[in-house]
Amino acid sequence: MSYAHAKKWDDKDSIKRLENSDKSRDVHQAEIENHLKEMALRFERSPNQSTLQTWAKDLAEMNYKHQLIAQVCKTIPYKMDKHPTLQEILALIKPYLAKDDIKVDELSDLSGRCYNHVKQIFLKMFTQEQLDQMVLIYLKRIVPDCEHFSAMHKEMMVLFDWIRCYNGDGEKLLRQGLISNQKALEKDVEYFLHPLRKYAKENGL
Questions:
Q1: How far lies 76's CA from each of 56, 156, 193, in Å?
Q2: pLDDT surpasses 90 at 56
Q3: Between residues 115 and 22, which one has the greater pLDDT?
Q4: In the structure, what pLDDT confidence band is assigned to residue 101 with cuts at 50, 70 and 90?
Q5: What is this structure's pTM?
Q6: Which end of the chain has fewer beta carbons closer than 10 Å to its terminal beta carbon, N or C?
């Protein structure tokens, strides 16, 4: 959960800290190995289990996440007649990284441009004290393990979900927060980009 929200707001320090944790890497390594084994079944000849295990360890140590490897592995049987080498898999990963990086950069840029404007609109209807209280409730109900986020990122989560639920009340905002948390876990960057693109365009940001 924490990793998803760190990635959602491009919190580079938190992302690095979470990705370097042994527990996180072990989980990704195990899932990567499963994806590699499943892909290997599609080919007549494939590396043995110990080789796939080593490849999974290498990919995890390069900080590749299992969701990305899953996407790549699904396409490989349709692109290649023979089981790829590790180097060929790495080459196939690169286009996905470029696409994700572009979207994450756009999300970071839009978040920065929209944040102050959204907050100004919010404070015309509510007080800073009310915003602080909403942030506390949101964190407790939706993302209780993100205490390492900056104050600005915590406000962003609330204010941008406030936009997504069309300036709704507290309960609507919390329901939207549950949806946003799930979308973050699914790494659905477009879900977060779309309303910010629209908001930036409508407000000339």
A1: 16, 38, 29
A2: yes
A3: 115
A4: low
A5: 0.53
A6: N
